[in-house]
User: Fold these one by one.
Assistant:
Number 1:
Amino acid sequence: MYRRYVYEAGSLSRPEKGSVKVFEDKVIAKERRRGFELSKSDRFRYRTRYFTDSG
């Protein structure tokens, strides 16, 4: 649910905030197809990355 919120909120263009970067439509479409879930390989890659970044 949190990943969905981040992607959906990040895709909104808010002119009052000035020049803010937003997710491209193709990125949002890809995540919607995946159901906003990480694959096993993605989870492993992120876990390994954060483990090595911490030390």
Number 2:
Amino acid sequence: MTGPREFPNGDSNAAPEPPGRGMAGLVASFRLRATDVAARGMAG
């Protein structure tokens, strides 16, 4: 899930994932991003 950001602005709540965090970091990052995308879908 590393690539160009679709939403360059308003992404302050999701910090970039540091390498080597393991599954916990991946899951937390994925859930944060999924929640953010869902919130954007609801808002827009």
Number 3:
Amino acid sequence: MTNTDPTKRVSLAQVLALLKALADDEANNYGLGGASIASEQPYSYVKLSGSASSSKSRLKNSATSIADLLDELVDADDRKQEKILLQLARKCVNTEQRAPMYEDNRIDIVTSMVRNGPTYFAKLYALQCLKWAVISDAQVSQEDFDALRDCVQEASRSEIAAVVNAFQNGTSGEKEEAAVRCACIATRANVDSESKLCAGMVQPLITLLQTGNDTQKLWTAEALGDLAMENETIRAEILRGNAIKTLVALLKVGTSEQKHRAAYALGSLASSKDGSAKIVQKEAITLLTALLLEGTDEQKHQAACTLGRIALSKGASDKLVQEGSIGPLITLAQSGNRTGAQKENAASALHKLVWTDHVLTSIVSEGAVASLVGLLRNGTQAQQTNALEALTMIAQVKENCSKIMEEEGIEPILDLVRTGASAQKQNAVAASTLAVLAAGDDEICAEIARKGGVAPLIELLRDGTDTQKENAAIVGELQALSLNNDGNRAEIAGEGVVPLLIELMKTGTDHQKEYVSGALGLLAYNATICTQIVDEGGIALLIELLRDGTDQQKLNTLVVLDKLAWFDSIRLQIVSEDGIAQLIELLREGTELQKKSAMTAIDRLVLNSTVRAEFSRHGGVGPLVTLYRNTTHPLWTKAANTLRGGLLGLLKAAQTLRAKEVFSI
């Protein structure tokens, strides 16, 4: 401006424009300053300045690759390390730029910074870089990340206050850095213990989401997604701020990264019932489905996750069918990449959607069975579990069982019974899936046996958890459902299942006892199994259930006793365990089904003269006569047949006028 040659002077407007550019660049690179500044001046607005001479180097650094930044980080001083890590965190938000971090052991540099970084925010920025290595790139395990997170202290009140202050009073660059810091704090935060502090950042974030520039909106959506992930209080605060409308708008018109972060934030908010309902109301399903069809890998991954979380909301399933979301979800479950996350999220969404009947029909017709069976064969543990649970619901419709057979789904389900992760109860879920498939289907029962399914189920019964034992008992019951399949029953008997079932009947839960008694009722068509039940002390336990069990346990037990009563020697053991008295009690006080089943068992028992005498001595004839006299009772015919059958010999033996008058036979 003071050059002696007027033609070479710079105008005032040019100088002001340059100064503004330098100030903005200074804010972008230095921002709110180190943690020490925020701690010393917790509630004041911090404004930093830089020199013009350093502007070129800082502008050059802003375009530096991640590889160069990491190489520079090693030899930088403490203050510069924090600035480099801030730049690194900003760059790591872009998937394509992250790749060099995983080359030449550079990720170890970032890990070291989390543990030993010079400042609080240096550690926090490094942790943020590793977040994507976990959730997007599968380069760091969740377990290792959790351990690293514990290396970083929780945010203090003053540090959060400084971030909020920057939102309210800072320059554009400082607001952007505040959004970055907020996202980093949320990544580290134990939101449950820090919810009140973190809640103070919500409204400034929402304001910036609505009014900020593209970069600010991106980081704000990231921060809101992190804050809302695991805390209902924070989610409610975000919902009160009407953030969903703005996030849905970003899905529609945002940049590629903004769409990804908006879908992520909506997925976090969808963890609450209210949030999920509002997302559906704002027509987000249409936009999320578009991401499933045409989005980047990360967008597809996050869209599938969010759709899965809102799938059970009122009206969501119908909307998903209308918008054509089912087909893309099935495609993603079959061929998605992104280190398996796409497949997992798609399978999870399908699992939730199959709970609605008409959506289940749509899912099956779109070819989901093949995709889900494919995940059973080659998927991760989480993918397999989601696929199992979806197939369990699909198999509730009998016609779908044949589709699962056609896709050769029995063998991979059995493989998971044998080898599924016990800690995740995967083998228990697989046993449950088999149970539903086998229900009343002779062909599937036979297929399970042909594929060697008996032994692993009995192994679960022997050594599994309570849930695994319960499901194994169900399948043991269902495998025996076919009355013509004594081969299955013989194999089960040969595997020593009866002692295990009897032990479970002694010590199991009510549910387990119910399933065990049901299994024994179907297995007892086999004579060897009947003998084993008696040898293992099963009669006394069955009579105990008849006396003290639930209604279903009593009904199941009556079926077992009916099968056992075919054998004359066992009839007398039933009498010796006070079984007659309990049968008569059910004739008097049982449900209609129990009375009917009790009479069926009595029909067989009283073929033995000793049992007939015992039945008469306990007053068993009276309840039968009461039913016989009531000709409108639904059990009248059954009572008449019982009286005319096995008890006829007893009545003739009585030879008393009283007996003839009472029975009129």
